[in-house]
Amino acid sequence: MITCHVKYVIDPYQIREFENYASEWIRIVELMGGIHHGYFLPSEGANNIAYCLFSFNSLAHYEEYRSATLSKAECVELVNAANEKKFILSYERSFMKPLLSDK
Questions:
Q1: What whole-number distance in Å separates Cα of residue 54 and Cα of residue 37?
Q2: What span, in angstroms and rounded, lies between the C-alpha atoms of 42 and 86?
Q3: N or C: which end of the chain has fewer CB within 10 A?
């Protein structure tokens, strides 16, 4: 399993726009065979940082997902809306291998 961790710097005045965007990506990742662990939005502390975690069975499966999203109309629309509305200022993506309980 491979988990993608994304750190977003978001516009704190457009949290609702980011929430709508995030909700759609949760649905898309799950429809495309991934496990979405959720988005984590600002609450206390910094008001412009959000995170998300989602997993695929392997890096190859993640790459298939990424490739498919480039041509999937609803994915392209989501990315275009984020770019136009500028509620995501920047993001960093990293990949991790989870260590899970064996219980």
A1: 5
A2: 17
A3: C
Residues 6 and 9: their CA atoms lie apart, in Å, by: 10
Q: Look at residue 90 and tell me whether its pLDDT is greater than 80.
A: yes
- Name residue 93's beta-bridge partners: 6
* CB contact set of 50 (below 8 Å; sequence gap of 6+): 7, 8, 10, 18, 22, 39, 40, 41, 42
Terminal-residue alpha carbon distance, the chain = 18
Q: What is the pTM of this model?
A: 0.88
User: Are residues 98 and 1 in contact, defined by beta-carbon separation less than 8 angstroms?
Assistant: yes
Q: How many other CB atoms sit within 10 Å of the CB of residue 52? A: 21
